[in-house]
C-alpha cells in the first residue's frame, strides 16, 4: 500500500528538515520526503500513484514520539494496564515507541520475562515496545541481574525504577557493566531514609495537610552519589523523573565536567505544583512528588539549556479503586500517555522551547540515549509518524482515556494541540 502525506509542515530534527512538504510511504516504510518546490509538485502529478492521500495542509508532521519511561504493568498487574491497552494509549497520544519499566510481577530481571514482554508486544501491541531490565534481582538492590544476557534478549536499558539502588557498591558495578555493554543505567534517585513514609513534597503544605513529606534532598543526595559513581567509572548514567531545582543544578554541573550523564523530566513536573494535592487529591500523588513553582521554573530552564535531555511520561496507570483509598495508602502515579503531547506543547506556546527543541526531546534524544533506530523520518525507516493539529483546543476527559488508568490530575484541563493521525509501520490511526 502506498500512502502520500500531502502538504504538511514537516519537522524532523534528525535531518534538520523544517519546512512544508510531502512524505511518500510504501510497504510500511518511508520511501521519500519531498520538499515543496515547483519541480517536485510537477513530479508528483506525473509520477506518483498512491492508494491513499492524507491531506496534512495546516498540520505539523513529525516522527512518532518515543517515551522511554512507561509502566505497562504486564505481567502481573493486568488489572491496572496491559501491553495491549497501554500501547493503544501510546498510539492515541502520538507515541509509536515506548520503553517499559521492569517493576512487574515477576520483575523483569531475567531473560524469560524480557522474552515474554517482547513476544506479547508483537502479538497484541499497537506500537514498538522495548523492555528495560532490572538492575538487580527482584529489584531488591542486593545482587546484579544478568545484564548482558538480558541485553542480548532485547533490553535497551536497566533500572530498578520504583526503587533506588541503595547499595553504592552494587550501583558502581552496574555503571561499570553499562560501559561494557553500552547501555544506560536509569537511576530512580531516592534516599529511602529521607523519604520513608512520605507521600508528598515536604513543606508548609504537607504540615497543613498533616501528611508526611518527602524533602528534595531525598532526590538530590542520590543524584549526587550516582554522578560521583558515573564520574569514577565512566559509566552511562541517566537520571529519571527530575523534579527539583537542586537536581537540575547537580546535573548541569556534572555535564560541564564531562560526566557521561543524561536526564529526563515529565510533563507533570513542569505543569503543576504540590498545590494540586489540596483536598487530598490522590491523582496528584506521584513519586517523586510534585514540588514548587520555583522547581518548575528551574526545570523549564533545564529543558531550555539542554541540562534535561528528554521529556518522558512515567506513565503509571492504576485501578480507580486504588486511587480512591485514603491519601496515605493510595499508590503513587499518573496516567500520562494521553496528555503528554498537549502539556508539552505548552512549552512551545509559552516560548520555553522552540518546536524543534521540543520534538528533539521526544524523538531524537531518547532514540540516541537508548540506541534505537527510531524517532526520524529518514527514507528506509519504518513509517512511524504523527500528524498534529496544533491549533485544536480540547478538554481532557479522563473517562475517555483508552488506557485502563484514568488517574490524572489534568482531568478537565483545556489544552491546545493533539494528534489527528498516528501512523505506525504504515498503519493509519485517525483520531
**CATH domain class of the largest domain:** Alpha Beta
Shape category: globular
Number of helices: 15
| Helical residue percent band | 25-40%
Assembly annotation: single chain
- Secondary structure: number of strands: 18
CATH level-3 fold name of the largest domain:
TIM Barrel
Q: Supply the CATH architecture of the largest domain.
A: Alpha-Beta Barrel
Question: What structural class do you assign from the helix and strand content?
Answer: alpha/beta
Q: CATH homologous superfamily of the largest domain, by name?
A: Metal-dependent hydrolases
| Poorly predicted regions | none
Distance between the termini: 21 Å
Number of domains in the coordinates?
2
Radius of gyration: 21 Å
Main sheet properties: 8 strands, mixed
Provide the β-strand percentage band: 15-25%
Task: Give the rounded overall mean pLDDT.
Answer: 97
Would you kindly provide a written description of the structure presented here, covering whatever features stand out?
With 431 residues, this protein is α/β, with parallel strands linked by helices. It folds into two domains: 2-61 and 381-430, Urease, subunit C, domain 1 (Roll); 131-370, TIM Barrel (Alpha-Beta Barrel), CATH 3.20.20.140. The protein is 33% helix and 23% strand. The chain has helices at 38-47, 83-93, 111-124, 147-153, 168-181, 192-195, 204-209, 216-233, 245-256, 267-271, 293-305, 320-323, 340-349, 355-362, 364-370; strands at 2-12, 17-26, 29-35, 52-55, 60-63, 65-70, 95-100, 128-133, 157-159, 185-187, 200-201, 213-214, 237-239, 261-265, 310-311, 385-395, 414-424, 427-430. Strands 1, 2, 3, 4, 5, 16, 17 and 18 form an eight-stranded mixed β-sheet that branches. An eight-stranded parallel β-sheet has the order 6-7-8-9-10-13-14-15, with helices on both faces. Strands 11-12 form a two-stranded parallel ribbon. The longest helix is centred in the middle third of the chain and has 18 residues, at 216-233. The two termini are 21 Å apart. The relative contact order is 0.16.
